[in-house]
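Changelog-adjacent note: as of this version, every example in the card shows the full chain rather than a window. The one below runs 364 residues end to end.
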Amino acid sequence: MCKLYFKRIRVWSLVKRSKIYFIGRKQGFGKRRWRLSHLENRRYKESEGLKEASHRIVQTRFISLSDSIWVRVRPEFTTDEEIGSINRRLEPYREIKTIINDTSCFYNYDSKDRTFGIWKKKKIPCPAFLPIFPIDADNDIESTINRIREFIDENGKVFLRTNNETAAKGMFLLDRDTSLQEITEKLKTLISRCKYFLQQRKDTRIVLVQFIKPETDQNFNDLYRVHILLGRVLSYYVVTADLDVFHNCDMDLNSLNRFIELNISISEIVEKHKDKIIKASEVLGCNVGAIEFFIRDGNPIFLEFNPMWGGQASKIGFGNTKFQSYLLKNKTQLSKKIPNIYSFLNYKNYYKNLFKNIHFHCTE
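Full-length structure tokens:
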């Protein structure tokens, strides 16, 4: 046993460990500039995963000694001033180190209308959209409402939302039956929200987004999510519900069979469209994150890019309590059918592999 232990030490000592530096809104500044504090915006078991990968990659106190730098901001809470501060710290290292989600591209994914604009330019399928500047809307409500109604007439059903909030905050679903009064009320609500956000986030706007109905043979909406890591596919899953707007937690036992069927077949879909999925991430200047899409006419329609995924699936699992219990009780049987789900739910090992892959990218 002792010989085996020392042999492992000897082998590990010969492996060059790469060093990673974390920077965020607070981490990497002031008292936290050199301190090995907890990860900003850490996901459940992520810190443990980093420790498990310590024979390959370790956190460093000094940005100058790092091989990779990971920008760990949650976009919806990050101000323009904070982005400027991070940009200044990254500037000397952009040509010589691997930078994960460089803030020089921050607004490409934070502002949904910018995201769609880039995708449209690169011929990457995404919803139709129409940006509305809150100052213009506030100065001419009538004209703005006319533009909204024209967009609804063209697309049938649309989202009226702020361009840089998440989790369905500041978002309303409108259709041809929505009254003029309701449109006016929703628009004024968003104008007020934008005025508040504009104080620290100058790229805030209102945006109309086409509602995309996925291609399904039942009354379900199937949302595909693929996690990208430095030009490769790290993981993937599908969530589904018979709602127009839903979250992972909305899945119940009525969704279970479809959830299993979709996650059995997702590997073929991801493999078929892998190049397009990775390109949709890379054109935004992002190299780590979760990209979401629907399938329509057999092809992906891209919806959103999230650089710091961390919703319910990353904390307690998929679906409501009964849904989670079923997956747990039937793990032995189902893990052979949907290994992607159980691999994702093994959080510590998942993040261990994530950090090991960062190491391999830096040393290959």
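Structural remarks: The two ends are 33 Å apart (CA to CA).
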